[in-house]
Amino acid sequence: MKYRILLLLVLVGLTTNAQVKKWTLEECVIYAVENNLTIEQFALDLETAKIDKSDAVGNLLPNLNGSASVSSNTGFSINPTNNLPTNQTAFNVNGGFSSNVTLFDGLRNVKQLQRAEMNAIASQYRLDDLKDDIRLNVANAYLQVVSNIEQVKVFKAQFAVTEQDLERTKELVESGVVPRGDLLEIEATAATQEQQIVNGESLVTIAKVNLAQLLQITDYENFDIADEDFDVPPSDILSNSAKSIFAKAMEFRNDIKLSEANVALAEKDLEISKGAYLPTIGAFFNYGTRYSDVTQLPDPVTGVPFTPSFTDQLWIFDGISYGAQLSVPIFNGWSTRNNVKRSKISLERTKLQFEQDKLALEATVQQAYVDVTTFRKAYEAAQKTQEARRLAYEYAKERYDVGLMNAFDFQQAQARVDNAEADVIRTKYDYIFRLKILEFYFGIPISLD
């Protein structure tokens, strides 16, 4: 029975391991955009901007307020019917409605609505810009994982070759063909390669954790990426000049749109602050009625005073008032003038920031363009170096096999091949990522297909 339970647990563990999700680059990018906490915070900012727009619409509409009060007076009071002093206990009810609307306030209410609409658009640009940054960061982290995995594969393949050389050298030492020092040299190389494998696997784990953290996934043990071996994708992005790529980026980059929107917002703020120089015109409408149990009215037929009913008093004593009011700013301690000055300074600041953002984008595109060219050449040079090191290694191996080269020189040749292969992998993924960055600035979505 115990063995059956143990077997069941093993099978469950194997099934669980088999179901570990393997994440592709596209899945990582989509998941990061949909689940990033900072994006969720920016999305809430966008919702707040939409509420601000609703507030601005409400400011254009008349308000409506109702009021009601119930009171009882004992002792000295004023009779609400004749406004004469009385010592009667009185029960009073008052109620009414009031409405106010701003007809003109220097068009500030209209411009506040326009500003709220513009701010909602700017918030959307801010959110989209953050998503762009996250896509780039996830792609870079993903490629780093793949690069580290490939390097570990190379280390293991090199170690397998060294193990074969180690077994062969042992036989030659035992037969007295080569000195024991050659065996010790190869054993040292094997130990070094084992250490490379351990360090490489550690770097793979760290890279996966970094990627998982970008995705805000905490189950690091079960996080893994799909088994993908990316080749350098075909691209004609370098057929475009850096200047044309920059011009294209200016058309769609969300950070530039956000910076431009901030200038428009500052211009609108200046218009709003200037509106305080102008008069404000408003209109009002009030309706009110009341009831009091001490009310005395003469009977229209007999002339005898009587107290009308609650309903009758509400109709008898109701009334309305309406009108308009004008407020002209004459002097307010220079607050309006100073607010206008502050708005002008803010506008100049946003204009300068816009120009700075354009310069930064141009510098980034130029750097990305140079990086693609540089890393492509580095990758091509690494490939040539790898081929040359491989030929040199094969030649060294032939000499070593016939005893014309000692083990130390032979292992040096192999080490140079190992380094060349590692450089190929590193420069390959550096080139791929820089290529994708430049394409991204040209409006091409991130994809390694």
TrEMBL record:
It holds the Pfam family OEP. Keywords: Cell outer membrane, Membrane, Transmembrane, Transmembrane beta strand, Transport. It is found in: Cell outer membrane. Its main location: membrane. InterPro entries: OMP_efflux, TolC-like. Transmembrane segments: none annotated. Belongs to the outer membrane factor (OMF) (TC 1.B.17) family. This is TolC family protein. It comes from Croceivirga thetidis.
